[in-house]
Amino acid sequence: MSNQLGIIGYDFIEFYVGSAKMWAYWHAKALGFNITGYSGPETGVKDKTSYFLTLRNLNFVISSAVKPSNVEITSFVQKHGDGVKRWSLKVKDVKKAFETALSNGGVPSGTLKKYEDENGFIEEAAIKLYDDTEIVFINRDSYKGIFRPGFGKPIQKIEITKEPTGLLEVDHIVGNVRTNEMDIWENYFNKTLFFETFLEFGAGDISTKYSALLSKVVRSKEAPIKNPINEPYEGVKKSQIEEYIDEYLGSGIQHIAISTTNIIESIRALRANGVEFLSVPDTYYEALKEKGFKVTENIDDLKKYGILCDTEGKGYLLQLFTKPIGDRPTFFYEIIQRREGAEGFGQGNFQSLFESIERDQQLRGNFDRE
Ligand code: FE2
């Protein structure tokens, strides 16, 4: 049997939320997405409304239940709050990818499905991930309409004033899991999807004197797909991964990193659009100057916009993290620019993110164990 799934890249990411219309508006206004498609009662879908958002290579779907009978969405949102339900891989042959994944231990979520209308057809099938998340195998090459059957043009054309953000594509998707679950999911990715473990942050690598985490990064050997997995590590106080598990009520997606080719311009626009980012102390930039990294960007510009900078293997990484975008301290975005061939995840930036979340965790009163 071939040790490939025929993965081409990320396709869409779907969120289940309380109000899709509000979430779609925020993604359009704050992150610069276009509202490209809509599905709901007006297009023949009775109990669910979905907005299809696009920006360069990004395809997001934001869905909510419009009737209590849609228990799949209402139960997800009631338990986890607003969050990522599924992310998808575009594959050459959905049936082959699904059957190969199942024969290697993938847990199916439903069966292979084909949906068609006058614009053509799509095929998709999903396997389970974490508590209530899915990885979907999809191919939409034979569909000429908007996104997939059931979608049409947006009903309301709303002109949204915003600064263009230059966001390009998904760089990586991160999961938070419970103590001792990281190795189980690492093994699941590597066995089921033929991924490989690419990086590991062990005991003491990412920690403060109060709390810590462990992390492993798995990646596809076929396409630029990277999936870090974090689990809590022992500490005097509650790890931020434990905070996530407590607030999300289980394991799930912590953040999605979106790439840009000009992070200074992207962050300037995102801030102008009202996106809130985690703060970076001024001492970070003094230390950065002392390290003497060779970077093209002006460090004072990085400081002005609060952008993190770290060397990594071949090149360097510029990153910044938003505050949680919903009501619970769970899901957030990362904006990333990889320079000079950097492939990995800088330990220094990861540590800064950890410290920054710890400060906010303390403000939320979720730092001390009950
Ligand atoms: Fe990240």
| Count of alpha and pi helical runs | 9
Output the CATH topology of the largest domain: 2,3-Dihydroxybiphenyl 1,2-Dioxygenase, domain 1
The amount of beta strand, in percent, is 35-45%
Tertiary shape:
globular
Structural class: alpha+beta
Quick summary:
By secondary structure, the chain is an alpha+beta fold. The protein has helices spanning 20-31, 71-80, 94-103, 182-192, 240-248, 263-272, 282-291, 299-305, 347-363, and strands spanning 7-16, 34-39, 48-55, 58-65, 83-91, 113-117, 120-129, 133-139, 167-176, 195-207, 212-220, 226-233, 252-260, 308-312, 315-321, 332-339. It has an 8-stranded mixed sheet with strand order 2-3-4-1-5-8-7-6. The protein has an 8-stranded mixed sheet with strand order 10-11-12-9-13-16-15-14, sandwiched between helices.
Question: What characteristics describe this protein?
Answer:
370 residues, alpha+beta, 2,3-Dihydroxybiphenyl 1,2-Dioxygenase, domain 1, 9 helices, binds fe (ii) ion
Account of the 3D structure:
This protein is of the alpha+beta class and 370 residues long. The protein has helices at 20-31, 71-80, 94-103, 182-192, 240-248, 263-272, 282-291, 299-305, 347-363, and strands at residues 7-16, 34-39, 48-55, 58-65, 83-91, 113-117, 120-129, 133-139, 167-176, 195-207, 212-220, 226-233, 252-260, 308-312, 315-321, 332-339. The chain has nine helices and 16 strands. The strands form two sheets. It has an eight-stranded mixed β-sheet with strand order 2-3-4-1-5-8-7-6. A hairpin with a 5-residue loop joins strand 11 and strand 12 (226-233). Helix 7 runs antiparallel to helix 8. The model has no long low-confidence stretch (mean pLDDT 94).
